[in-house]
Amino acid sequence: MEISARTEIPKLKKMLKESEDMLVQRDNSRQNNDERVQELVLENAKLQERLDATQKQLTEAESDTRFMLRHNKRLESELRKMKKHMQKTKRAKKIREEETRSEGSVSTSDGSEHSGEDLAVALPSIRTPVEPRRSGDADIILAEPASSRSPFSGRYAPRVQL
């Protein structure tokens, strides 16, 4: 029995040593796993921050895009209105030019007759309006400058008041 104990003791010591080594390895493995888990948690947090920042940028970009689309629609609408206004202005200008050309003679309060072109030449020299003499007579009144929105801004346009 003693012989078997002598041979068994070194075997048991060896097994105990191997068992301790395995426990140390497991412990080291757990520590490594814990460290790896912590690294992965930190990496995950960084990725989550990047994801949140990217989503915020995407939301802002979408908002900017919607704003720009609305702004673009407003500008297109304004452009259409301006084009229509320009067409109306051109038509009105043509009509006025036609009326000026086709205008017949106008009799003034002194009884003389002038053609539309004569009046246009004579009136720019008059700077003050003529006071009415009688209720039935026609008076020529110098018009005030057209508004700043008018295409004829800055001109004095003759106007006949009956």
Q: What's this model, at a glance?
A:
The protein is mainly α.
Number of structural units classed as domains: 2
Shape call = rod-shaped
Give the termini distance in whole angstroms: 150 Å
Helix content: 55-70%
What percent of residues are in strands?
Answer: 5-15%
Oligomer: single chain
Mean pLDDT across every amino acid position = 77
As laid out across the biggest beta sheet, the strand order is: 1-2
Would you count the extended β strands for me? 4
Question: Measured on Cα atoms, how large is the radius of gyration?
Answer: 50 Å
Q: Stretches where pLDDT falls below 50 for ≥5 residues?
A: 145-149
The arrangement of helices and strands along the chain is: HEEHEE
Q: Structural class, please? A: mainly alpha
Largest sheet: 2 strands, antiparallel
Region (Disordered): 76-162
Biased composition (Basic residues): 81-94
